[in-house]
Write a structure and sequence with these properties.
There is one protein chain. The protein has an eight-stranded mixed sheet, with helices on both faces. With 273 residues, it is an alpha/beta fold. The chain is elongated.
Length: 273
């Protein structure tokens, strides 16, 4: 991993912990990372597993540690109480990298000033297994070197995509941020439908789970677009076509998803406001 800048990771929950494991797995020096984690139990685990310095709060970060990037990986509802404590690091020129949903560039500039460099991101939970995708948006104060550093950190847990407009982050939150939940719901729905059609619970659950995860892996590896992959499975006048005639009807899955994504996008804007 081409990254040697000192990192201050604020919050080591599921997403912060996944990123930390990804960085170290790609060869980042543990000495270049200081984590802030108030949970004593989790802090002990991080020290034992990764050999990094873990502080309970901003005041306990070693004075000699000068981070180039401060990553806020705490829950959005905790940010008001947490972020101001790190103003000193930001004044020293550190990049702010946020993975907090709904927290805008302007939000962080309100704490740290209009001149601070901020990269706002939206990862998703498959980052925990190195298969996430993260959208990024940087303000005008962020240098190209800082953008590359931010992207490299997020690529340790999956793919990345840059946005041209911060306003697009609400739709990203709806599509990929919440997307894993929609896929899990698909597994649930297929399982219930299989049971309703006469399959034993365990059999239906295994069939649905393996089919969704297997199809996802096939889509990842295939050169064809999803539309073509769908057609490859669909025989003329066959059983799959009968099901697709329902799912692709005017009142089928597409308008349902349109409404769902629109609702999630709207809620993301409300939370940001």
């Amino acid at each position: 991993m081409a990254q040697s800048s000192p990192i201050l990771l604020v919050g080591c929950g599921k997403m912060g912990g996944a990123m930390l494991a990804g960085w170290l797995g790609r060869g980042m020096n543990a000495a270049d990372i200081v984590a802030v984690e108030p949970s004593r139990e989790l802090a002990d685990v991080l020290r034992e597993q990764h050999g990094i310095i873990v502080a309970p709060d901003a005041d306990a970060v070693p004075e000699s540690f000068k981070p180039a990037i401060v990553i806020f990986a705490v829950k959005p509802q905790m940010m008001d109480a947490v972020a101001p404590d790190y103003a000193g690091f930001i004044r020293d020129g550190a990049l702010v990298l946020s993975i907090a949903a709904g927290k805008t560039i302007a939000y962080f500039q309100g704490f740290f000033g209009n001149d601070c460099a901020v990269v706002r991101t939206m990862p998703n939970t498959p980052a925990a297994v190195g298969r996430g995708i993260t959208a990024l948006f940087a303000n005008a104060q962020t240098s190209e070197a800082q953008k590359q550093a931010a992207e490299g950190l997020l690529q340790a847990v999956g793919e990345t995509v840059w946005l041209d407009d911060e306003g697009q982050m609400d739709a990203v939150t709806a599509v990929s941020g919440g997307g894993p939940a929609y896929v899990f719901l698909l597994i649930e729905a297929m399982t219930k439908s299989g049971i309703a059609s006469g399959l034993p619970v365990e059999v239906s659950a295994k069939l649905a789970h393996a089919t969704v995860t297997g199809a996802g892996e096939l889509a990842r590896q295939a050169e064809e677009a999803p539309e073509q992959l769908r057609k490859n499975v669909t025989s003329p006048a066959g059983t799959t076509l009968e099901a697709l005639n329902v799912l692709m009807a005017d009142d089928g899955i597409q308008p349902l998803f349109d409404r769902a994504i629109a609702a999630a996008t709207r809620r993301s804007r409300e939370l940001a406001g």
